[in-house]
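Run folding on both entries below.
>entry_1
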Amino acid sequence: MSYEAQNSSAQSHNDNENAPGPITASDHEMLTHIRTHGPRLLQTLQESGASKELPFKLVWTAHPHWPLLPNRNTDRVRISVLDSSFNPPTLAHLALANSQKPGQEGEDGYEAKLLLLSVKNADKTLKPGDASYLQRLQMMGLLSQDVVTRWKVEDGRPNVAIGIIDEPTFVGKSRILKEYFAARLRSSPLQSSGPSTQLTFIVGMDTLERLFSPKYYPPPADNPDKTAEQTMLDVLSRMLSPPPDGDDSFIVCANRANLPSDTTQQAKGESGVDQTLSVAQRMGWMKEDPSDSRITLIDIGKRESRFSSTSVRNSRRRIGSWPGARMNAYAPQISKAESSYIQAGLTSIPGQRIDGRALDEYRIVALETGVAPLANGSARVSIGGRTSVEGNGGGGTEVVAATKLEVESVDEGEGVDGGRVNLTIVPGRKAWCMHLDLVVLADQGNVLDVLFLAARAAVWDTRVPRTKVVEWKARPMGGAVVGGGAAKDVGGKEKGKDADRMDVDDTEQPTSGFDTRQLNKAVDFELPDYWDEGEPLEGSEKWPVCVTLNLVPPIHFLDASSREESAVPLKFLLIYSFEKDGKGDKTERPVLRGMRFIGPGEVKAEEVKGMVESGKKYAQETFKALNQKLASEDSRRGRAGRKMST
């Protein structure tokens, strides 16, 4: 591989140059490499505590001979080291990575840059909700595409590497990296004699304050009379001194906006800014001439200096719970870099998802019926995370559905109750009206599919009360009215004034003298047994299911999480019901009831047919699994078996 030197601007603070770039083919290759080798390297590093192996690993390098450059002999390689938790990377990290040591701008800048992730931090430990180390490594890979270096490889990538280290202190990191690079450069085929390395650690002011806090430097066991401050000064002197006595390392520190006061810091047992700088000046590590200083201060820009990973995480949580963001499924909830990262994983071979699922794999689905005692049918469905169905509270998408039957008067002659099957009570007069309510308790993605599942489960669980019709009888001519009210002669003066005749129409005349029929009319109903559970709602088995195909060309995937949804340009909703043909065939056949595209993305017309077929297969699997679970719920609750339509 050939490499070429290119002059480039060492630092820029304008928004265009700090904006993340698009994902390229080489970036896909890099992310695949990190996903493949990162887990093994992390495990090896964390298990190396008892071995003599150095606790440092290179996860990815821009080229095999990094940090050396082909066709360029040098007796010293200057490497900038940006050590951080990267949880997540921000524009402040990018500004730090692209910063230069005063007096070393342009052609006199760093030969190579290292993004370093510490898996052991003196102050920080992994907390619930934090990005995993593998996720951070991949975000560091995306960050590396925007790092600027003087020398670039043939395909335009900078001379950058990504590494992991299991050492909490900077003085320890300096020693480990010096030893590692000395061995790596001695074995490099590019130069017969290995050059020396000079490390410059790029830090923020808060990190510099911790570096000068004596509490992180316990006295050695063999010299208990030595104070922590003396120990700190000794180890820092070794780190910041030139060879052969020291590591020959430097520190470049970025000024930070909104720093706490020295009084606040000292109350926490930490050095304040003024105290830190005073110690550095007293030891001769900071001088008026930056080119002659081991510790120098730089400005990375007022805007960039205000960014922090903590504020980004807090903002992300607030945006995730913002109601307006869920009303618009395509509100910009994640950055372009995070969206590109998600899409790169989905379109890689094989597809990679944040939670490790396959592209056609659903999260765990939990279902429970009979959750609302006052409803005629109810169900709760959750998908993903630890939900309240499992007794542990939020974390996934959760929907509760309930049906309620109420008596409704029906206008006679309009036929509005003709399709209500077993919802009719008094033909032409009264019927059950079913109300279906759905409540979204939590939305962590794929809420439309869950809404359909919950609705089908609640309708399945619905029981229609059994009723008994109350009939009223009346003679067409003469005699008395039977069935209610006082007996009255049809021809008497009281005719037409009997309020108790209710719905009996006694004005209808017989068609002939031989017509001796009585008029029988159903006018009301009663519940023969209040405690009777009722009968299943006829037709409930025809309630459809919904399958959402999330499209990231050229692939589609199922059950998107909320973060994945934010990176998806187009959704394809397919709604299927499954019905028997009524000719003795017991197989439910899929019927496409509706489909819809949602989102600004585009799809080719010739691809739609294939996606419809895929959606039909997924819908059949969902329908079958849902019916099995609903039957299991009926059995659990001791409900009568369901008579399915034929």
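>entry_2
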Amino acid sequence: MARHRVGGLESPVRVIDPHVAGGRAAVQHLVPRLRKAALYLFFELVSRMVRS
């Protein structure tokens, strides 16, 4: 029974860890895209202001 309880306690940690690591990886992966999108929108606004 002790092993079963320990396994039950360990499994949630093992399940949570990959999600946390995956979340961090996703954020690090999306940050450059967000920066590019922000720069693109900024230049689009500037170009439209200059044109008008």
